[in-house]
Amino acid sequence: MTLPPPPEFKPRAAWRNDVVAYLLVAPPLLLMILLIFLPALQSIVRTVTLDIDGAPAGLTLARYAAFFEDPISRSNLLFTFQITLLTLAAIFAFCFPLSIYLRFNTGRVAAAVQILALFPLFVPGIILAYALIRFLGTRGTLDTILSVIGFTGYRTPYLKPQAIVFALLWESIPFTVLVLTAGLRQIGDSLIESARDVGANNWQIFWRIILPQITRPVLIVFSLNFLGIFGSYTLPYLLGPAAPQMMGVFMAQTFGQYRRPDDAETQAVITFLIASVVGFLYVRTVASQRSEREDL
Amino acid sequence: MTTIRTEGTSFWASTMRSFAATVRRDGFGWLALVVLILMILGPLYSVVLWAFAERWQYPSLIPTEFGLRFWEQTFARADIAKALPFSIFLSVTVTLLSAVICLPAAYAFARIKFRGRQLLLLSFLATNAFPRFGLYISIAVIFFRLNLVGTVQGVILIQLINTLLLMIWIPTAAFQGVDRALEEAGLDVGASRFRVFTRITLPMVMPALSAALLLTFVNTFYEAQGALLIGLPRVVTMPVLMYSLINSQLVTQYGAIVSLVLWAPSLILLIVAQRLLRGGYLTAGFGV
Fold first, then answer.
1. Domain A71-295 in this protein, CATH class
2. Which of A16, A22, A36 is the mutation pick for testing B, counting most B CBs within 10 A?
3. What is the pTM of this model?
4. 3-state SS class at B64
């Protein structure tokens, strides 16, 4: 015999349930609307309704025209693109072999490789910037090591685009390796063994078996790294050249030093619009991954 | 004499032989190891040694003279003495506020089947879907008009954004994982709902909640870009101070010492890293 359920557990009317839930989720939702959607939307509206001098002007593209007529703005945007694509290529070239190695190998060397690959997770960006200046700079640690083994003529990448790429790669190794190895672990050993049994070589196994199974992790790694690099500030500001600048550095300068918030806003909206495709891709990939998990 | 030497050489020879064999067997692993040691540990090596260097002349692999003289000087600086406690206060405040705002929502997301639940939960991914610094500029333009630039409130608000996804997604998954049968068993034997929550539900979600709190605290402590844009000139956190220490570079040691001190919260993370990794919390902030 079972006891009658306690009164609190009586199924409530559906609408009452909904109201309680909405009240509970309202605070963070409001915060997000006020601090993300509203500022972004307002910036977008302002860039198409304000003239270059800041006066209301109906519907106008004057601010965008001014941005694209300015050679400095154009070269900064192009530079941001170049750094983003170059860094993404470096991330995949570096992390893909590493992740595959970690998926198929155990033992002490693999364990040490994994620890080192995850270590940047525990080094915040601002400390990394300082550390890389001491490491890569002229007469820094790398310069010293090379001169001790007899190589002179080291040319530092510090304050050059290469330093930005190296720093951004450094920072994204742990996340990329974590997501890729997690994806690779979903592929069973038996699948790969049976492919090998019918005579597939390593290259075919990678292209035909492994890659199609991890499109989702690859998309997540691609989109989040793209957004992270495209919207970065600290590392390009502290390690990169004074010109051209990445968009984050450019915006900060326009806003803070030149005191032209309206122009900074136009620059920000241009990065929103460009990154929106990738942002959408990221949200859609995570959403489809979750809906699949919930079905299980 | 001769026997000893022969034994010695053969010992070394066999060690070298077996070492060479492992390198051959796991060539890629060793290559990766060497590259990673140089690339990951190299920069950290520089920072740690600079913090304890009195003088370091090129081209020496270690400081020419060790010493702690600069530690005293660093902490005697008024800006550092003021920024460190303030940074801790700010991170604690943001973390607690985030918990108060997000945890009830996480409970609702996990336990109540309401319309639009999945969509609203996914909407928090928006915090990652914008290029971060562009978003900060947008917010700064509004804060500028609201006179929130240079205020603690402004910095708290902008730092709260980065905490939402983590503080909602990790606890939601944890509350979903609690076995409802256990709670119902508690209610069946006459425990009050409050008692069931504190004695059964809470202990089961505690590991996930502490992970969310810890990660939020550490992320907030190191948040530099929002604080730099919104906080200056009046509100200065430790990471913001690092920018000027790096840019002015009068004394190399200041930056190194502050870096080491700033590292402390990350070292706590490192100690519990295995548990964070096993729980999948380390990537939770990215929505994966």
1. mainly alpha
2. A36
3. 0.91
4. coil
